[in-house]
Amino acid sequence: MAEALDRPTGALTEETADTATTVRPPRRLDIVGRRNWFFGFSMLIILPGIFFMVTRGFLLGIDFAGGTEFDLQFGAAETQAEVESALAQIGVNGTVQAGANGTFIIRTGYADPAHQKALMDSLGQRLGTSVNSQSVTTVGGTVAGETVVRAFVAILAASVLILAYLTFRFRRVQGGWRSGVQFGGSALLALLHDVAVLGGIFSILGKGLGLRVGEIDTLFMTAVLTVVGFSVHDTIVVFDRIRENMIVARSLTFEQVANLSIMQTAARSIITSFTVVLVLVALLIAGGDSLKGFVLALLIGIVSGTYSSVFNATPLLVVWRRLAGATR
Amino acid sequence: MVLLAFSIFVDGAGYWYRIINHYPITGSVADMPPHFGDWQLYIHKGLDIQGGTHLELRLKDLPGGRTPSDVQAEEIAIIDRRINSLGVNEPLVAPLGNDRIVVELAGVPASKAQEVLGRTGKLVTTSWVADPNSKFNGPEGISTGFKPQITPLTGDMITGASAQLDANGVSWVVQLTFDSRGTDQFGKLTTAAVNACPGAGTDCPNRHIAEWLDLTQADIDHWDDPGYAAQVSLPIDQGGKLVTNPTIIDPILTGTAQISGNFTQATAKDLATLLNAGALPASIEILTSTDVSASLGADSIKKSFAAGLLGLAVVVLFMIAYYRLPGFLASVALIFYAGVVLALFKVIPVTLTLAGMAAFILSVGMAVDANVLIFERFKEEMRAGRTIGAAVDAAVRRAWPAIRDSNISTLLTSTILYVVSTSGPVKGFAFTLAIGVAISLISSIIVTHNLLAIVLVSGWARRQGALGVSRG
Known about the structure:
The complex is a heterodimer of chains A (328) and B (472).
Chain A: H1 2-13, H2 35-55, E1 59-60, H3 62-65, E2 67-74, H4 80-89, E3 94-98, E4 104-108, H5 113-127, E5 131-139, H6 141-169, H7 177-208, E6 215-216, H8 218-248, H9 254-286, H10 292-323
Parallel strand pairs in A: 1-6
Antiparallel strand pairs in A: 2-4, 2-5, 3-4
Helix pairs in contact in A: 2-7, 2-10, 6-7, 6-8, 7-8, 7-10, 8-9, 8-10, 9-10
Chain B: H1 2-21, E1 35-36, E2 39-40, E3 44-45, H2 47-50, E4 52-60, H3 68-84, E5 92-96, E6 100-106, H4 110-118, E7 123-130, E8 146-154, E9 158-165, E10 172-178, H5 180-196, E11 210-213, H6 217-221, H7 226-232, E12 242-244, E13 256-263, H8 265-277, E14 283-292, H9 294-347, E15 351-352, H10 354-383, H11 388-420, H12 424-458, H13 464-467
Helix pairs in contact in B: 1-9, 9-10, 9-12, 10-11, 10-12, 11-12
């Protein structure tokens, strides 16, 4: 058994020269040639999203907006109007929204735990029923501001680091560091595409349709960063193949190399994303309510990330290299 | 192999023990193997799962002449002592920056936490002095025309406080012991009080000494406002600051004092604990608080667990359906992967939050990625006419750069998340994802590769159909 274990690892270090494997093009589908169709499709989704983001903004989660959010369950069935009027009667300025499983989400200004308890007690008295708090969250204004800044710093840092890393990784491609920047930059554009898709859809969900699932909070930013990592992940696999094919298939133009590489890696990209989509759908269906928005963001981002890796990143690279006047 | 043995050691014994003894599947269980003395392995549950309060506090009114981090350290030590009296399982009191403190208390509602932490806990002793402007007739024994005056006897001259029954064994009192300076001061104060209107059985406002909790000079400056004075003079359990305001019968020179009042055993103990723990050097402001009920947490974890199992099952089914034998091997590697990650969670230990759980489930989906890269490459190599053994090796070797680079991008983003974020769930998510990605690299490269090699070398699986190549 030990022998069997050692064998492949040993073989790994042996340089068995093999170059003939990847040239044979499988089924041809001209993705790079039809790139304008794919760019157009992306725009179709991004432009309304950007329009919404600019004109309407986002529905902010409590950790970004600041204030206090109560998730309350009442002993007796109450309507939203009843809860609203009870809240007004006890002199609290706040909003009421029906949550999942008969709970109510109440948002007020900042209240420390002692005041939270007082509010829940008087609300219960006013409604004449028991009040069970599922969760109460308070975020002071200064912290909310810091959180927003941190979120943007994180996304900016991630973008810069990824660009730097890709530039470094692809610096040996024909054309040197300039090529590195082209590879890194295309991946970054594909990544911004995914962030725009995600932001746009959540702006529409939250502000356009008024759904709580479209709330932007710390977890949403976490989802964005995860999607960023994942999107680049797919793009790197294609780009790595391009790098390899540029050496192996010297007779092909860059456009042909790019298309061949997409064809060779598309199955893998789609299958990998498919397995991730499978687990995310499982989480969305069977998982708890508190993570619904987070999981949805991951789901949208990963589908978009895969699409952009296959249909946008490489065509962008082709366009960029052509504009830059690279021969291949 | 080492990893496998490690995870079986960490996971296996524990779950076997849990199942045999019908203990819950998660959380701390006494005497569970493997354990060495106090060192125990189990999954630590985050507050969003087991319910409890998370607070982020900011220190304000820092005393001059000390560095903020020095004050912060003392503050943390005192909060620690106060929390100990609550009997919370694995409380967390941690510094954040140099002017903030994070407190996590399982199973304690936020309002109770604030009550315990929010008090500065400074015992202030006052005598009563004449003030013609005072309109407040009270507290008991004091009439209008008097206000408190802070004395040099301070809380830090107390060396011990304990709750005990009084000499008659009827009501609860708090027994105080002073150090030498305190004994001296207390002796002077009580002597002066008795001398104000001497004689057994006589009483006058000047013969009272009051003990307050957190009374400030500002409170005294507002004494002319009767409403304000009345509010401050309420007992501490009614939102006021007055602890006791007895008539001094004889000068007390022994350095001990008894605080009596309407104490129950619990309130007497609370006060003793507060005084023993010491006063906070700086007062605190609650920046954020999160209070999650245990029932919501229990519901969430059940659902996440079900979702995780469902996700794992679907991925395994898909892999086997699409890749046949290699897919089955990848599934074995995947289950091995899940085991190792769980074991690592226990050893490090990682506190499992809902977001962390999502990261773990997500990483199960992503862990397949390296396998898929290898298998797709394997199909290509087979089509290019290689023998099975050579194709396996070439596939692993040529897929490696892509696997490495793509996982580095996820590691990069999760590291940034971990470093930049201060939020517990986000840190948990990032850390879990990073562990997941790192282990999935090992599991797919080493485990899948070796499993492929072992099974394929054995020969019975060399039919093309089983390898899923013919369809490729």
